[in-house]
Design brief:
The protein is of the alpha+beta class. It is built from 14 helices and 15 strands. The strands form four sheets. It has a five-stranded mixed beta sheet with strand order 7-6-5-10-11, with helices on both faces. A four-stranded antiparallel beta sheet has the order 3-2-1-4.
Length: about 375
């Protein structure tokens, strides 16, 4: 799956070319509807052909050439699509992208200048890495969840001890998806926590923070006492991106960990988005680095001042072309984009007619106004 930077680069690369963008909803598992997605695709293609009427000569042939490349990519899926959504971008000369997505997509076919990017924004949440640390007084299990895949990937091996921890070696082994932990990794994690106690927990949190970077999330589970110790050693930049789950313990299977992590990450994402919206609304109302409503947001986009664009899911559904224009404008200046859902989306619809933005800077006359 594309990350944010890759999506921005692809958008900028193809913005002056005619591109066929195809999004498909693949979430059904009902056998009676196994080929329904193909009928929906045919309907969308038919509508796209109608929009070609009156276009330049040869446009229909270019459309057919791009469609042929997308259809070839879909030939492998005789019954169901491989996941909850699917996306394909193609020009008459090449298939640019064809991939399954872990989130539902709208059924959409567009032939236009540049790729249709707004629907893909929802999938970007899946690219955000999530670390899960399960701890008690003696053991630690460290997982990483990314793009729908869970792996117990980190070995923490204390190599040299005198009276204190003097060296920590961190190695990475192949991800395990079977629920069976290697004895070496488990013993290493146990030694890591047994020696050095508080210092060890501090190093553990430091290492997790390094792996999560500036966008990753952290789920901490285990005994209440161990969770509290771990939280005490969290770097400041990770505090707002972490969530505690005392209901999780070290004996959970990989399948159980994955289910818990997905639920916790969803809850944490929602909390982060609502906090971001709170900040933007406060800034906009006080003349600070915030914009509310399509007019103010579009003005800030034209001026290249948008750091993060916020759109509600309802706004994107109801205003597909315009929403895509706003997303593209944000990408032109390497801005981030967040699609808000649930309570955050409802509030954004009320406060800003579905649109808002965190700004990089304020123009003085706006602050005075």
């Amino acid at each position: 799956m594309l990350n944010h930077e890759e999506l921005v680069d692809l958008y900028r690369e193809l913005r002056e070319q005619n591109v066929l963008s195809v999004y498909l909803d693949g979430k059904t598992n009902d056998f009676s509807e196994r080929k329904l997605w193909r009928r929906r695709l045919e309907h969308e293609v038919s509508d796209a052909r109608k929009r070609l009427n009156g276009t330049a000569p040869g446009e229909g042939g270019a459309f057919d050439g791009a469609l042929g490349r997308v259809e070839e990519a879909l030939e492998d899926f005789d019954q169901f699509l491989p996941d909850r959504g699917w996306v394909g971008f193609a020009t008459p000369d090449r298939l640019v992208l064809a991939q399954a997505l872990r989130v539902p997509m709208p059924d959409l076919v567009r032939w236009e200048e540049g790729i249709r990017v707004a629907p893909y924004v929802r999938a970007l949440k899946q690219e955000r890495p999530v670390a899960c640390v399960l701890v008690d007084s003696q053991h630690a299990r460290v997982f990483e969840y990314r793009d729908g895949t869970l792996g117990e990937e980190i070995d923490l091996i204390a190599e040299t001890f005198i009276d204190d921890l003097t060296d920590v070696n961190v190695s990475k082994r192949a991800a395990s998806h079977t629920g069976v932990r290697g004895k070496t990794g488990k013993d290493a994690a146990q030694r890591y926590l047994e020696v050095g106690s508080e210092r060890m927990m501090k190093e553990l949190m430091k290492l997790v923070a390094e792996r999560m970077g500036t966008h990753g999330l952290l789920v901490i589970g285990g005994t209440p006492e161990a969770i509290a110790r771990a939280a005490n050693h969290l770097p400041n930049e990770l505090q707002s991106r972490s969530i505690q789950r005392p209901s999780m313990n070290l004996e959970l299977s990989d399948a159980q960990v994955r289910e818990e992590v997905e639920s916790a990450a969803s809850q944490l994402n929602q909390s982060i988005q609502e906090e971001l919206l709170d900040h933007v609304v406060d800034q906009a109302r006080s003349g600070g680095k915030g914009a509310l409503g399509p007019e103010a947001v579009e003005k800030a986009l034209r001026e290249g001042r948008v750091d993060t664009l916020l759109l509600s899911r309802n706004f994107i559904r109801a205003n597909g072309d315009y929403a895509d224009h706003l997303v593209g404008a944000a990408f032109e200046h390497h801005g981030d984009v967040e699609e808000l859902s649930n309570e955050g989306a409802e509030r954004l619809d009320t406060e800003g007619k579905g649109t808002a933005a965190r700004l990089r800077y304020v123009i003085s006359n706006e602050a005075q106004g």
